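Please review this one:
***
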Amino acid sequence: MFSLNSYSDQSIKRTRVDYVFVIAVLLLVLIGSLAVMSAVAGTSLSGVVVKKHIVAIPVGIAAFLFGWFFNYQIYEEQWKWLYGFVILLLVGVLIFGSYQRGSKSWFNFAMFSMQPSEICRVAMILIAASFLQRNMRRIKEPSVIFVLFAIMAPIFGLIMKQPDFSSVVISLPALLMLMYCAGVNIFYLILIFLFGFFAGIFPLIWTYLYLHPDAMAASGLLRFVGGMSSNVWYMILFCALVMLIGYLVWTLLKQFRIYIGYIFVLIVCGVIIAGFLSGMVVDKHVKPYQRKRVEAFLAPKSDPKGAGYNVLQAQIAMGSGGALGKGLFSGTQSRLGFVPEKHTDFILAVVGEEMGLWGTLGVLALYFIILWRIVMIAYSASDGYGYLVCAGIFSMFLIYAIVNFGMLIGLAPVAGIPLPLISYGGSNFVASMWAFGIVQSIYSRRISFR
């Protein structure tokens, strides 16, 4: 039997706080609160959003303190209980949850609502880090990867059942970063990357050709690529070409005295073909609203009043702020309702319009400081588990920032991914604060007191 009290560190007073990290987090919370209140001021959402956000702040601070004061090693030792809790949450939301924006992802209670997948993102890092740390002696073996993905498959499957694609977008890169930092064979990581790349690139290409039929008509190669999604002979020919190119590359490398086993070439070709076939499945099952988001990413100006409206209006609002901004609660584009989802996905447009370029750069700088401190805390961790947890949390928040900034400037499709601590969203805020509390716990216990 274990006692939760046995994990609470009685020597917490002898540890030090990473003041730079904590201050950067609190500053982002302050900026985010101002931005959210400004975004909804004068709208019908104002009362509900502000009330929920004010409630979320103390709950988030409590989550931070919980993550900090309890020894993070509890998650390594009791990972099975955490895994069971995650599965229970995800199954429960599919049975008892409510639909919002086309996804059955929420528990609605009398006073608040909760999105379990936000908590599960952090929990997945803790579980994966525990598994990798316990298997460090055979980390180079491919069986470790297969078992890890077998453990994670039910979680990802339940999340996709909701469906909540944004959680997968955030969690998979974090998982790959964990595997890399743990020392997994780089060849296996390259295979995983190739599979994901080809599974994602083909739906993008086919959507682009759908939007530009003139380009496909003018090029035989593009007609072939476009036809692969529906013509079985084109698919067979593509697979044969991949194998032929793999053989030619293998032969060429031998001429330069670079010897690679043919089995590796076959594996690489097989992964590319599997990625292509998976891309076909993804393309067939993309929902209409997801297709619209991809179309807006590839050609936002082709439908400025439809699919591309969100991105274009957010960019206009952000650009109109200039260097110093129009002042808090003074943004015209956002306050007049031109920017949709302004308190969630496009909160940065409000920051850019009202706080200007310098305000936006300030938010970026604070994110950079937080990520930098997480890296430093990882290197100072007293054990491998703390190092891996920091690596996973670092990559998760890096992807958050990249995707959110990227979709605002048109470098990434709109994926419904918030900007942690800045965007409105109680579940995401609480989960983020819990993650940061765990990082602070790792820093506080970089010298073991047990």
